[in-house]
Design goal:
With about 210 residues, this protein is an all-alpha fold. It has one domain. It is about 80% helix and about 0% strand.
Length: about 210
């Protein structure tokens, strides 16, 4: 699946990159970032860096908006099951924690960006663990029924496509960003270069596996 590739290629990049986002305080999570890109006159590479952060935030916002509803409604349905064994109770606790993690105020600051990306990474972990469960297990079948009753299948499919497109867009933006760095900038932006090289390697491995 494309999403399995994204779990490997994107998670570390996202967490590291969002901690490096500059000057997010008192900026809107997405709209004002866009305005800053168009209304100020930084270097072209600074525009590219801002565009990369905007893509990350936009994807995380969508995951938070859609994913939190799917998980919350799934937990409510699972809680209606009268007899719950220990594995099911443990799964409900984990999903309930995910609901709690989604309940943070949306403000115009860096903490909100970190919360959005952190929630998206937790959704990724949940999807990976769910996909790795044996299809014939009673727990997987119970979770599948509740999840699909509440829109999980549609959410996961659209997320997969959005995330893969995000990775391609960010890779292309990073490629342009790194290409135009001066020798002095390459020393200063070593983290960006490392993120680009990691993503480049993952795309090469993905293309090789699917050629």
């Amino acid at each position: 699946m494309k999403h399995s590739f994204l779990l490997v290629a994107g998670a570390l990049l996202l967490v590291q990159f969002v901690h490096a986002l500059p000057h997010m305080k008192r900026e809107s999570v997405a709209a004002k970032t866009q305005n800053r890109i168009h209304n100020s006159s930084p270097s072209e590479n600074e525009n590219r860096k801002s565009a990369i952060s905007l893509k990350i935030v936009g994807l995380a916002q969508w995951v938070h908006l859609k994913g939190s509803v799917v998980i919350k409604n799934t937990v409510e349905e699972l809680n209606e099951i009268p007899l719950k064994n220990q594995p099911l109770r443990a799964s409900i606790r984990r999903l309930s924690e995910l609901v709690e993690d989604s309940e943070f105020p949306i403000r115009n600051n860096r903490q909100t960006v970190q919360n959005l990306v952190g929630f998206m990474n937790k959704i990724d972990e949940m999807i990976k663990d769910y996909n790795n469960m044996p299809d014939n297990s009673k727990l997987k079948q119970t979770l599948q029924t509740a999840l699909e009753n509440n829109g999980y299948k549609e959410f996961a499919s659209e997320y997969e496509e959005r995330a893969f497109q995000y990775a391609e867009d960010v890779y292309e933006a990073l490629e342009e960003y790194v290409k135009d760095l001066s020798p002095q900038e390459r020393v200063r932006e070593v983290k960006m270069i490392q993120w680009y090289e990691k993503l480049q390697k993952q795309f090469e491995e993905y293309d090789k596996a699917h050629s």
